[in-house]
Amino acid sequence: MSRASLDKQPHEVAAMFDDVAAKYDLTNDVLSLGQARLWRKAVARAVDARAGERVLDLAAGTGTSSLPFREAGAYVVPCDFSLGMLREGKKRHPGLPLTAGDATRLPFADGVFDAVTISFGLRNVQDTRGALGEMLRVTRPGGRIVICEFSHPTWQPFRTVYTEYLMRALPPIATSVSSNPDAYVYLAESIRAWPDQPGLAARLRSAGWERPAWRNLTGGVVALHRAYKP
Prior knowledge:
By secondary structure, this protein is of the alpha/beta class.
């Protein structure tokens, strides 16, 4: 079993997700108290994929997050750098073009996607700026990015309760449902260390994206960010 550290060495992060692949979707549903499915629906609405569009779904894991885009008639490419996740995804969704790739060195040509999206994955990338720059590179001019990521609850009393849940309740719950509960200790730590909503918007702007904006979900536990390529 393995867990990554907060310096987010790529081989450690990949190995950690390899370990949790089989029960990853189930564990997320349990730990989020069922909110994960609602968050996926919010992402699908924000991406607003149209028939014939090309959508890159980064950190796609087993491909579950890619299904709404395919159902909308878009050509979706689920991409992840955990081979364990991709193998599990291939068993479940053999028709999806699951692709191995590192967010900081994407294996795609310039300007080929109408939209790029990443849910709960940007936080695990060692070089956030490099990843945002790569997403910009593979998106066509006028195309869009949608990022769904854990963030900072906006109401202070709830923020305190939420932080306690992350560090005290999450690991024991993960022990009962996950094949690698230690991985969820890292995930809790990485959530606490992640920038708040304005902080991520600033990173998008710095990487070259325009008109960054966000919408809070579940009181700011999660934030949905959207921006456009000039």
